[in-house]
Amino acid sequence: MTVKKPTSPHKRAHATKIQPGAYPVFPRNTASQLLRALRDPEIVATAARVIAGKAEELRVAVLGHIDHLEKAARAADMVRIFEQAHEIRGLAGNAGLTATGRIANGLCKYLDAIDRAGSRPDQELVALHLEAIARAARAEDEATRLGDTVANELAVLVDKKLTEINDSARRKPGRDAPSGGA
Amino acid sequence: MSGATFDHLKALIVEDNVHMRTLLRSLLTALGVKHVYEASNGADAFVILRDKSPDMILTDLSMKPIDGIAFTREVRLSHDSPNPYVPIIMVTGHTERLKVEAARDAGVTEFLAKPITAQGLFLRIAQIVERPRAFVRCAEYFGPDRRRRKDETFTGPWRRHEDFESGVELK
After folding, report:
1. Is residue B140 less than 8 Å (CB to CB) from chain A?
2. d(Cα B60, Cα B86) in Å, to the nearest integer?
3. Domains of chain A by start residue, with CATH
4. Across the strands, what pairs with B13?
């Protein structure tokens, strides 16, 4: 379908577009050299090895954050729990702790939604996540299907909770009324 | 292997986690980028930005006292900014839609979700080098054009100057 653009605007918005070149971009020679390097299989492989070589260091860092996470949990400090879970989800994937990262991500999503809704977190759900994060990261076999199964089951729980939060937000007075409605 | 080193290319990494910072530095070094600067938050990063004027920035989202969103806004809008057009790649573990939208609306050029992969990072850098995006300036926004795709079925509302065939302004 072809859309015919209007010839006379009702209102002309004050937006201007600045095309590349009108502002500084990478010089042509640098750009082509850089693109060659970015697509060089050997350089990509070297970079992948760099990431793989950092896995153990990152795993130790994740375990350090889990200690902080457990301290935050004992203090029932939800802000610090979120901060630590966020650090863990950021590092876990590159540490080879995929399930740990997924569970931490689920907890972050839940706490973020709770915070925005101004609700109180379900302590049981939070506790389940904290235990699962710690166990998955400390287990020798984190990468096995067991960790993934736990991550999947917790993800279902978080989705259910997020639906409840969204439904509850929709039911709040004032939210149903259409803007400027009668 | 190209084995090129980019003597004049400067990159700035803004990340509060030292492990991630080191990882990103190592990846840029593997690529041949010689000058890599580091900051652990948006406030320190802005000082480096003014001093070194990097060609690209990789930034995290969550940092204190100034996070990646506020830093991006500062780069794009501050009168002190040496290059408001500098490409900014946000490297983040945040997957919450509202955070991602806030970062996009602050003027982030590309997103890279953690965990980091070499292909993922290199693809984002290739995008900013090969296909630099137009910038849009209006009352509410300054940054890379947020419309990435042209939708042929879009029927309006038409709001931008270039949407119209005639440049005649209605009075």
Report:
1. no
2. 16
3. 55-171 (1.20.120)
4. B38, B58
Tell me how close the Cα of B108 comes to any Cα of chain A, in angstroms: 16
Please give the full DSSP string across A97-130, using - where no structure is assigned.
Answer: -HHHHHHHHHHHHHHHHHHHHTPPP-HHHHHHHH
Domain B6-145 listed as CATH 3.40.50.2300: yes
Q: Distance between CA atoms of B95 and A72, rounded to whole angstroms?
A: 23
Beta strands in chain A (DSSP E): 16-18
Kind of pairing, strands B33-39 and B110-113? unpaired
B26 is written with which tokens?
A: 């190592």
Residues of B in contact with A51 (CB under 8 A): 23, 27, 116-118
B21 HSE (CA, 13 A, CB side): 15
Which tokens sit at B125?
């850098």
Residue from the list A7, A15, A108 with its beta carbon closest to the beta carbon of B159: A15
- Prediction ipTM score: 0.81
The C-alpha R_g of chain B, in whole angstroms, comes to 17
Q: What is the pLDDT of residues A135-148, one digit of tens each?
A: 888 886 655 556 77
pLDDT tens-digit readout, A91-122: 999 999 988 999 999 999 999 999 988 989 99
Pairwise CB contact (< 8 Å): A8 & B154:
no
Check CB contact of B95 with chain A, cutoff 8 Å. yes
A106-125 per-residue burial string, b: 16 or more CB within 10 A, e: under 16: bbbbbbbbbeeeeeebeeeb
HSE-CB for B164 with a 13 A CA cutoff: 20
* Ranges of each domain in chain B: 6-145
- Cα–Cα distance, B109 to B91 (Å, whole number): 11
Partner residue facing A17 (CB), from B23, B136, B139: B136
Whole-model pTM over 0.95? no
Tell me whether residue B44 is exposed, middle or buried, using C-beta atoms within 10 angstroms of its C-beta: 0 to 12, 13 to 18, 19 or more: middle
Phi-psi region of A173 (alpha: psi -120 to 50; beta: other; left: phi over 0): beta
